[in-house]
Write a structure and sequence with these properties.
Length: about 450
């Protein structure tokens, strides 16, 4: 568990700004027209302003109904004050919140729960019920935004957990925002969820109004008095983390995915983030699930030896390397440039292996193959793209060639298809002859062949 104090010096903002990981964070590409309301959760007054003032402005401009749920009044911010009681601070902080939110989302409806500051975990179920009540009756019509569940502050973590439970129960997407991460974390900290981070770009007016709103929280940004116990809670260094020309949100479920042509560039940026530093999309290369799946994949190939193989979605080249033991030539392709770089390093020196960055089906490699492997890729395609990909595979497979498909069977939020749907589609095409199938709870693996006569 993260432990920190607001009195710690914390991480300099320049260190974050110099981070290529932060600079390369994919755009959120939020489709505001998909929602009727924004339900934004704050553990304390000012969380919503620091981390999501730009989002509040953009949601308002797009006509969303904005509902703000504030768990506590933040009355415990200055426990050693001799000039302000917790009750007085609660009143002040509510007033500050109203002024700040009025600056960025004047029509927002604010619900104050008054859960004791520092005890959101005790009132977590009350918060969950309130979030559900603020969402509409139809799944997917509300966007829930809440503190990150691993932000390190007990109240933030509990508020995020309540929001996650409400999102799951209501069927609405959830975005999380970090606050204290920027204080205790560093760009190379393994706790930073880079693969799930998305940026919401802000324009000049958005940034100016955000600064005005932050300044409304004067009890946190300035000392209450010159006496001990009344010191500034949020230092200038801490506030500097919220002067960026963007806001960062965490899409842990991968539920915010753009439509149409934007999906390809967005997916490439996402997978580039996932694949950096030898990272695998869902699990480390040495994980037993991945290793067992690769062993089953190789065992399912009906021929002992192949001349030429195409692996679509080669990721970091773990299976590519193994396929080279059974094939004279292997071409591994992937949407992610970062993945291909790692695959090239992993397979360097292996005769007959090439890797190539390209986006299927918009781009397709030349040549013919007697085996094509489509692994963990099909659900990222819509029906039209999957049909195009199948046509290209059939056009590249030699008579008698093998198509092996393997996909995760559980739901992947935001993507067009499930693994089972991909396999049902392939199974339904009469040009492919089923050779064998292995199905378990987590994944499905199938082998098809193309008839020798092409019929």
């Amino acid at each position: 568990m993260v432990t920190f104090s607001h009195l710690d010096h914390g991480t300099d903002e320049q260190l974050w700004r110099d981070s290529t990981r932060l600079a390369d964070t994919p755009e959120l590409n939020l489709r505001f027209g998909s929602y009727t309301r924004l339900v934004l959760v704050a553990a304390h007054p000012d969380d919503e302003t620091l981390a999501a003032a730009g989002l509040l402005q953009q949601a308002t401009r797009h006509g969303l109904e904005v509902r703000l749920v504030v768990a506590t009044d933040g009355e415990a911010s200055h426990p050693g004050s001799s000039t302000h009681t917790p009750e007085q601070l609660a009143v002040i902080r509510r007033q500050e919140l109203v002024h700040a939110v009025g600056t960025v989302a004047p029509a927002a409806l604010i619900t104050h729960l008054g859960i004791p500051d520092g005890r959101v975990a005790v009132g977590r179920d009350q918060l969950r019920r309130t979030i559900l009540a603020e969402c509409g009756p139809e799944p997917g019509e509300s966007l829930i935004v809440a503190p990150w569940r691993s932000d390190g502050h007990a109240d933030h973590d509990a508020a995020g957990e309540a929001a996650a439970a409400a999102a799951l129960e209501s069927g609405n997407p959830l975005l999380e925002y970090p606050v204290w991460l920027w204080h205790w974390g560093t760009p190379d900290d393994p706790s930073v969820p880079w693969a799930s981070m998305r940026r919401l770009t802000l324009d000049g007016p958005d940034m100016a109004r955000r600064e005005q709103a932050i300044n409304c929280h004067f009890s946190q940004n300035a000392p209450l008095s010159d006496l001990p116990g009344d010191e500034t809670l949020l230092s200038a260094a801490m506030i500097s983390h919220f002067s960026r020309p963007f806001e960062i949100f965490i899409d842990a479920a991968g539920s915010i995915v753009p439509d149409g042509d934007e999906r390809l560039s967005w997916a490439q940026a996402q997978f580039d983030a996932v694949h950096r530093n030898l990272a695998e999309p869902w699990s480390a290369p040495e994980a037993w699930y991945e290793e067992r799946k690769r062993l089953l994949t190789l065992a399912a190939l009906p021929a002992r030896h192949y001349v030429s193989a195409l692996e679509i979605g080669c990721s970091t080249g773990v299976l590519t390397r193994d396929l080279a033991r059974r094939c004279d030539r292997v071409l591994g392709v992937d949407l992610s440039a970062e993945a291909v770089k790692t695959a090239a390093r992993r397979t360097a020196g292996i005769p007959g292996v090439r890797t190539l960055q390209l986006a299927v089906p918009g781009h397709w490699p030349e040549g013919s193959f007697d085996v094509i492997v489509l692994s963990e890729v099909g659900y990222y395609l819509d029906h039209e793209s999957l049909q195009q990909t199948l046509e290209l595979m059939l056009g590249s497979l030699l008579p008698g060639g093998t198509l092996l498909a393997c996909h995760w069977r559980h739901q992947i939020s935001g993507w067009p298809l499930r693994g089972d749907e991909v396999h049902e589609f392939l199974r339904g095409d009469g040009r492919l002859r089923p050779r064998g199938r292995y199905t378990e709870e987590d994944f499905i693996l199938e082998v098809f062949t193309v008839p020798q006569d092409g019929s």
